[in-house]
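Retro notes (design track)

What went well: tokenization of the new backbones is finally stable.
What didn't: we kept losing track of which sequence belonged to which structure.
Fix going forward: every design gets posted as structure first, then sequence, in one message. First example under the new rule, 165 residues:
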């Protein structure tokens, strides 16, 4: 049942050329060493593999490892509430002591004024007593002292005399 056909079936040709036979495309062979950095083989959604520019692979983020707490941080953490509590206690104590401190400051100012007044009064009494003694004629009057000092040269020894009148 083989029948002879007067014609031959040929595949479709380009531009009607009966002798054109397409040839298979020879893919160039690329060695891995010839692939430049940043270029890699990629599989497309259609399944075809091709070379394409790629982003550099980023390493996965490192899992944080817990570090021991330094001694200075522990000490500071323990001191913070202690110092804060001490400051709070001092504030409360000052609020209770404020009326007494105000009274004490008034007492100190009064004591200082009393000392200044006493020293001034004593100086006035001494001054008055000297005047009274000198004006009654009982004393010889104020003493006058004269001192004469002489020296020879810049670094010479100084000599002096004291005269009472």
């Amino acid at each position: 049942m083989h029948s002879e056909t007067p014609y031959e079936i040929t595949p479709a040709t380009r531009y009607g050329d009966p002798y054109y036979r397409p040839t298979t495309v020879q893919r160039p062979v690329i060695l891995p060493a010839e692939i430049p950095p940043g270029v890699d083989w990629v599989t497309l959604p259609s399944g075809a593999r091709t070379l394409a520019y790629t982003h550099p692979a980023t390493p996965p983020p490192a899992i944080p490892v817990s570090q021991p707490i330094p001694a200075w941080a522990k000490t500071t953490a323990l001191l913070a509430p202690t110092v804060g509590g001490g400051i709070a206690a001092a504030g409360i104590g000052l609020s209770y002591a404020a009326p007494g401190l105000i009274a004490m400051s008034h007492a100190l100012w009064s004591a200082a004024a009393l000392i200044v007044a006493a020293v001034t009064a004593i100086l006035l009494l001494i001054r008055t007593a000297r005047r009274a003694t000198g004006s009654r004629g009982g004393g010889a009057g104020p003493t006058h002292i004269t001192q004469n000092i002489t020296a020879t040269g810049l670094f010479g020894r100084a000599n002096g005399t004291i005269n009472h009148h």
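Added context from the reviewer: The chain has a mean pLDDT of 81.
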